[in-house]
Structure prediction request, 153 residues.
Amino acid sequence: MNDRLAATRLLEAGLIEARSVANGQTGVFARVDLAAGTVFTRFLGPDLAWADVPEAEVVYVNSFAPFEWTVPLTLARFVNHACEPNAEIRPDRALATLRAVAAGSELTIDYEWADAALCARFPQHYFWDPRWTFTCRCGSAGCRGLIDRYRAR
Ligand SMILES: [Zn+2]
Prediction:
């Protein structure tokens, strides 16, 4: 994992940066113009059993394999949700742009994403923790409001 982590940090350094946004939160922004399909970070860090995820990390984890929860050590940690996001999480842990993103724009993903194949095979693993629920104010026409479940695909 360390080689992949180092490579991902190099990738991040050229393409993105974390910045403060409203309410004391952090967001991730494009440093340069990004073409559609650009991988700008990966969801890498220790893969833990749910019971071993520290309380402070619960809101940051994501799962890419049954019964494993990844605590991100990369800037993937700070990518915020939007209901019509400009980036996506891929099953291989990459975060990539869905369309061209101009320098200075915030990068967003859909927090209700889950890998459809894994959800179908391991439905008991894909519970939704109530600590992940929040009211979205992304302002898009298709804003779902309450973010409170997986929408596998
Ligand atoms: Zn929204």
User: Anything to note?
Assistant: Helices lie at 2-15, 116-121. Residues 2-15 form the longest helix (14 residues). The chain has one domain: 2-111.
